[in-house]
Design goal:
Low-confidence stretches: 128-138
Structural class: alpha+beta
Helix content: 25-40%
Strand order of the largest sheet: 7-6-5-4-8
Order of helices and strands: HEHHHEEHHHEEEEEHEHEEHEH
Largest sheet: 5 strands, antiparallel
Radius of gyration: 27 Å
Distance between the termini: 56 Å
Shape: elongated
Strand content: 15-25%
Length: 318
Amino acid sequence: MAIAKAERLMNLALCLLGTRRPLSKRELRGSIEAYLEAGNDESFNRMFERDKDDLRELGLVIETVENLEGETGYLARRDSNRLPPVSLDAEEAAALGLAAKVWQQARLAGAASGALQKLRAGGMPEAGDPYEGQHSAIEPRIPVHEAAFEPLMLACRDRRPVVFEYRKSNAARPEPRQVEPWALECWRGHWYLAGYDRDRGAERVFRLSRITGKVRSRAGKYTADVPDVVTVRETVAAWAGEGAERSALIRLRSGAGYPLRAKATAVRGGGDGWDELEIPYGHGLDAWLVEFGPDVVVVGPADLRADVVDRLRAVAQG
């Protein structure tokens, strides 16, 4: 059955690419044997729509045109479906192959593999696999576990506003957010979305793991301009205290809070199963510390300690 479908798709693609004028469903049905064997019009229509969607998914640009009689026709212009010459050297091809490997554990694995196949068919040189025959512990991977990733990726690509429920670190329950998504970026193992928050009228960055429920698309155009450069990583780094000139002193339970230990500028044994750490203190550090719950106690400064206590009280009162 897989062979029969592949043959049917190939025949449909050849018909659409070979015509100089749009062909109607009726004409396509009369030209392709598999469609002639369809039991009735309903079966043919379902088969044709699936095949058309499959060809578009494979990258074929199919135009829908309405003639003077009001009948809908279809064609695939050769100039719209011709891949321009691929001029990549061996090093560039190797870089693309390595980049495709990054997505092997994500939902983009199929798209990355398909893109490489199309580039190779267009003349991209075959590059040696630096990891072939090895099981390297440092082979690049970008894990994507959040259900929100795929709908947000598509919304960024298509420039579609979205709505989702978002739970801040100090909030007892999620709140609705109306966002015009700009870009997604992975930073230190977590995915973040940058976009324009309509309710707050400003740019915001959202951590995908804090999005609850489904991401729903909304009709309409963007109300804010998309910046030429979206600095997701820099924004998140600033919120996490990167480059901060101040320091905070915290007590951290032994064996806990590795991310805090990784960014500490000094670590001292505090006794009784606790360590003392000095970490950079920047905007948003209080929200980050709250995530570690009872494993962290803020010693100073006093304003940071007060902010953490306020956030914990807000969660407890939820």
